[in-house]
C-alpha cells in the first residue's frame, strides 16, 4: 500500500496502522519497507512527533 502524500492523511493512516496492526513505529516501517527517518521528518514538518509510549504521532 502506498501511503498518502498529504500530511494530514498520512498522519491519520499511520496512526490507524500503529493502533490496529503494529506494536511500534519501527515494526511498521520494517514490515512496510519504509524509511522511519523520512516518515518521522515528513510528519514532524506537519507538526507531529512520534510518542513511543503511546505508539502514535501526536
From TrEMBL:
InterPro entries: DUF4250. Pfam families: DUF4250. This is DUF4250 domain-containing protein.
Amino acid at each position: 500500500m502506498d501511503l498518502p502524500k498529504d500530511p494530514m492523511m498520512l498522519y491519520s493512516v499511520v496512526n490507524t496502522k500503529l493502533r490496529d496492526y503494529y506494536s511500534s513505529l519501527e515494526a511498521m516501517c520494517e514490515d512496510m519497507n519504509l524509511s522511519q527517518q523520512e516518515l518521522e521528518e515528513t510528519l514532524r514538518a506537519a507538526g507531529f512527533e512520534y510518542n513511543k509510549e503511546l505508539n502514535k504521532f501526536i
